[in-house]
């Protein structure tokens, strides 16, 4: 390492692992967006909070920007290092530290994967209910930084509902112990909640105390085929009234084609424009009878064209793969992604306007969309046609995103439901936040990170800052 700043950091922390090979810089310098050329200064892999504090203090003294890095499964450019930043990877801080059976909490380091947390909770007869398809590769620190949601928000809420305490290294190098797992704590501002969803711009999570809960009752999984978009909300309202829902996910025929081509098995014959995978409590015969009655009513009303209910765990997993496999099946096409939300009551009107906008602006481009209809969150994937230059494709998508942001503003929605703002969406932040809110957010950032070294360029940027910096 020829950079004198890195040599100084190595002397300061002789046990710190530092990487600077081109392959490492490329691997750690990007996330799933793949839209920016990675160009970090180096990769630091600490193993404890003390090392993180020392790195942050060194970075302040040497005016080096830091990009915190977890599993880098983000889709908004929040973990991109394209401007000579030091990537601070937390993957070696990956231990489960403590299970507290009385408080029913699990304390972990930030590099632990979501899957590992699930397994640790399950070993004690409990669950950590936040869940989504990237569970095997995303890190807990990353899910906290973006307030991740997933497929069971309808029942359990987002990540912030399940974080009892945080230890965080702020931008000035101070270690903050936030809330300490308390259930009640009315002693002023709750910085724990402020840090959740802050995308690494206020501090670096070095430890998290997660709340656990009892496993849900036995459940059943059902796949429904729907004839039109209007039926989505009717079926959701019916099922929510008659059943105790754990999840209610929808996708289109375009999404299904990609998942089937990727190896999933068709579960319903014929072609249908919309599909729903729903999971609901089925602890006894009464629950099962209620589910069958709801399905039959939807069928009689013409809201559902066909359906199938899983008869085993393997069949349930196969039905869920039709929804959870969409992102992986689209990944080779490197789609341009929008992740938006509106109030559940606003979904029908927004869907109508969104469909009209996408049809008008993308007449020759395939758009695959799916989402968590039960919490108003839609994922829009735009696929670049063969032969279309990437620069032209991104420019067109950015133009449409601006129009989409204006549509969301009219419906009181958000340009980011669960992926964060990062680099990709910062130009559209004003569609979701007022100028007064943005000014306050910038002021808060300045307090926690006075020298602006933590994830600069993410969320918002100073005037004249290049798009990727």
From TrEMBL:
Residues 36-215 form the FAD-binding PCMH-type domain. Keywords: FAD, Flavoprotein, Oxidoreductase. The keyword Transferase does not apply. Pfam families: FAD-oxidase_C (PF02913), FAD_binding_4 (PF01565). The keyword Zinc does not apply. PROSITE patterns: FAD_PCMH. Gene3D superfamilies: 3.30.465.10, 3.30.70.2190, 3.30.70.2740, Vanillyl-alcohol Oxidase, Chain A, domain 4 (1.10.45.10). Its cofactor is FAD. Belongs to the FAD-binding oxidoreductase/transferase type 4 family. This is FAD-binding oxidoreductase.
């Amino acid at each position: 390492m020829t950079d004198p700043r890195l040599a100084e950091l190595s002397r300061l922390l002789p046990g710190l692992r530092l990487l600077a090979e081109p392959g490492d810089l490329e691997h750690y310098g990007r996330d799933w967006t793949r839209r920016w050329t990675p160009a970090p200064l180096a990769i630091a892999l600490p193993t404890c909070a003390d090392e993180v504090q020392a790195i942050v203090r060194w970075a302040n003294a040497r005016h080096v920007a830091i990009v915190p890095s977890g599993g880098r499964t983000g889709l908004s450019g929040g973990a991109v290092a394209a401007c000579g930043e030091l990537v601070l990877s937390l993957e070696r801080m990956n231990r489960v530290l403590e299970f507290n059976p009385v408080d029913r909490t699990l304390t972990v380091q930030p590099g632990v994967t979501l899957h590992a947390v699930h397994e640790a909770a399950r070993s004690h007869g409990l669950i950590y209910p936040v869940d989504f398809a990237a569970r095997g590769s995303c890190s807990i620190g990353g899910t906290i930084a973006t307030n991740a949601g997933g497929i069971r928000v309808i029942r359990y809420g987002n990540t912030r509902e399940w974080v009892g305490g945080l230890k965080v290294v702020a931008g000035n190098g101070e270690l903050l112990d936030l809330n300490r797992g308390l259930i009640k704590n009315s002693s002023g501002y709750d910085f724990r909640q402020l840090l959740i969803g802050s995308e690494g711009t206020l501090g670096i999570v070095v430890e998290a105390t997660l709340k656990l809960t009892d496993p849900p009752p036995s459940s059943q999984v059902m796949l429904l085929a729907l004839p039109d978009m209007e039926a989505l909300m009717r079926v959701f309202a019916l099922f929510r009234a008659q059943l105790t829902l754990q999840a209610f996910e929808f996708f289109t025929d375009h999404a299904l084609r990609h998942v089937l081509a990727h190896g999933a098995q068709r579960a319903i014959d014929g072609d249908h424009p919309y599909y729903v995978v729903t999971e609901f409590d089925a602890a006894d015969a009464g629950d099962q009878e209620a589910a069958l009655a709801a399905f039959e009513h939807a069928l009689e009303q013409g809201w559902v064209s066909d359906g199938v209910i899983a008869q085993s765990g393997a069949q349930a997993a196969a039905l869920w793969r039709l929804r959870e496999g969409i992102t992986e099946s689209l990944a080779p096409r490197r789609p341009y992604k929008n992740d938006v939300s509106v109030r559940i009551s606003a979904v029908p009107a927004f869907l109508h306007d969104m469909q009209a906008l996408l049809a008008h602006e993308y007449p020759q481009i395939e758009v695959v969309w799916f989402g968590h209809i039960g919490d108003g969150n839609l994922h829009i994937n735009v696929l670049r046609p063969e032969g279309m230059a990437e620069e032209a494709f991104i420019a067109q998508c950015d133009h449409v995103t601006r129009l989409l942001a204006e549509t969301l503003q009219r419906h009181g929605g958000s340009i980011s439901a669960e992926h964060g703002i990062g680099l990709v969406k910062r130009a559209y932040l004003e569609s979701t936040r007022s100028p007064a809110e943005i000014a306050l957010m910038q002021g808060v950032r300045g307090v926690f990170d006075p020298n602006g070294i933590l994830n600069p360029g993410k969320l918002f940027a100073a005037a004249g800052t290049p798009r990727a910096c």
